[in-house]
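Deviations from the work plan: none for this task. Representative record:
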Amino acid sequence: MDYDSYARELAGKARRASRVVAALDANAKNKVLETMARGLEDAAERIGEANARDLAAGREAGLAAAMLDRLEVTPKRLAAMVDGLRQVVSLPDPVGKVVDSRIRPNGLEISRVRVPIGVIGIIYESRPNVTVDAAGLCLKAGNAAILRGGKESIQTNLVLGDILAESLAAEKLDSAIVQVVRVTDREVVNRLLKLDTEIDLIIPRGGEGLIRAVVEASTIPVIKHYKGICHVYVAATADLGMALEIVDNAKTQRPGVCNALETLLVDDSVAAKFLPVLRERLEPEGVELRGCPRTREILPDLAAAGEDDWLTEYLDLVLSVRVVNGLEEAIEHIDFYGSHHTDAIVTSDRAETEEFLRRVDSSSVFVNCSTRFSDGGEYGLGAEIGISTDKLHARGPMGLEELTTYKWVVRGSGQLRG
Amino acid sequence: MDYDSYARELAGKARRASRVVAALDANAKNKVLETMARGLEDAAERIGEANARDLAAGREAGLAAAMLDRLEVTPKRLAAMVDGLRQVVSLPDPVGKVVDSRIRPNGLEISRVRVPIGVIGIIYESRPNVTVDAAGLCLKAGNAAILRGGKESIQTNLVLGDILAESLAAEKLDSAIVQVVRVTDREVVNRLLKLDTEIDLIIPRGGEGLIRAVVEASTIPVIKHYKGICHVYVAATADLGMALEIVDNAKTQRPGVCNALETLLVDDSVAAKFLPVLRERLEPEGVELRGCPRTREILPDLAAAGEDDWLTEYLDLVLSVRVVNGLEEAIEHIDFYGSHHTDAIVTSDRAETEEFLRRVDSSSVFVNCSTRFSDGGEYGLGAEIGISTDKLHARGPMGLEELTTYKWVVRGSGQLRG
């Protein structure tokens, strides 16, 4: 079968399956999620074998150690996938919730009701847990899922997909509610991305290159974030002790994730006092500081930070530091170099707080706390399918509700338009 | 200047202007809208002259009469544009509204607050009123607008754009809050559609060809509807008198718009009774009925309706009719041939009502009323920038709120992630 026919068949099956899953009530969805969780537990050996084949192929292909690590499904990681599904069981079902309603003067009852989006395509790299996490969230929100992981993890993903499909079949449901793309050639993805009458939403997860390629090729709406260049601005009135703890936490608690701090902005009036203390705290933790010219007047032996640094998501123990002249310059820097992910101010000035929160155009704006809180779980969403720095549909962490849409329901008694 | 530089300059100016308009409060926005309304009133002659040049060029180019009609700005139409702006003044400002908020166990105060989207590009055909309507709605929602109408209306649009820009300048605001694209070459649009870091949303308005071309070329999110193939299903238990009035109203009250009825589905059990009465009502009103084979068993001299008819948005006094075997077949037809715009059932059965409303996957689903109510004004939104048959961000009629997004605002007192 050619790639185009394969893509069309996948998408057509998903569209039909989407009607089945959309009609399930919360109990039925929870039952199949539990069956999936048990199915994964029971198949530990089968998953391990497939994963070993991926790892062997990866070693042979000379994959980097970090890549091999992400590929590996350890017993602990399998248990986390199973736990994840059970957490999704415990979340409330967003489908059917009435968003708002009104009765018009002519008697029409008009309401907006949450409904599933339909068919969602997830395109990701080599972490096999995404296969299970995304399947569970899409299903709970009443959607069919098409899952396409990196080719390095194909054997693992196929087995995970088989187990999810078997669980659906065991519950007498259409197994195409969750489909793993079985062909690794990129051309299949490119064909899928044009099927905008069958697929409603694409969520790419991975590096900026992957995401740009998906956006470029897709005629289907895409929700995404390219990167997370998060800032903390230490303002003139900041409690410097609090600022030190926040910067330390935001940079070092988990440096490899998108809500970690990348660029610190320090107000000129406190820079001479704050920066030496900061260095004393961070350098022993292995953080490399890079500074703008004014930072290097205070800490002369730091490496220089330039344009490239302001635009870089290090995802590592590196922190670029810039001294700015007040709020205006801080906001300008964030606006120009930032990625609209998460940006924070540390201040004790109320007016400055409100101005920062109002004017910084990021999906999450923080005052006096660590950027690491930018996360669906921390926000109380229960689980997260991803983070959006787009402006449309969903912004910031996306939970179950963001995997739904609404329809307008209008009830009349014979009304005609005059 | 080359097209790429021109597009980048436009988009860059819009991005800068978007920060100005986003910061305006409701009073300031209303004041400039009123200045625009007065500016248009005072410039009637200037607008008329520009419009006469477009009309003369159109006649010379052999434009169809309907096209010339759409192009014309009569005094009545100018008054309607002015009224439209004043209606927008009277609508509540969506910006700053708190969508929801919560306090987390660690004391973080987390809320979602409505904010403008940023820069919105509107791409439309030759009706110059869109220039003013879209500018007003975008501005009230705190956005900068880039407006690109059809080349046939360029002289009119440039003058309208100049008046809006002069009104902004008179209020000491950045005149790039509303920009009309001054170059008619399509290549400028294609360049604009790739500037996804400067432009946040594209709303195309026009025929299916225009919209498909925009979706194909754009890396910016697009909200749209391709067409409106609206259905009414007359069920077995329908009040046939009510059904007759609803079908008549939905088809004939304004046949040229997207929420007009295109295909009637009649339950087999009532077809023999209903169809002859329907014909007696509609044919004198000039409606051509086209029927499926079963319809033509009842009304043998009707023209045949086939696959093409089910897929056609007539926008005219033509109605295709199909006899179906119950709800299931009606839903299947709507699902397969429909455009997810607006679909209605006429029934007196409660269970059937609920099943139709739940299973029909359209942006608006109606029971016992005319499809013509699918409209922002009729829904109580106050005004409408367009209708979306997409699933993301906005579905159905889009008002001011749909021209906003939200941001997450997180207030802490030194919280760190453990």
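Chain A touches chain B through 66 residues (CB under 8 Å).
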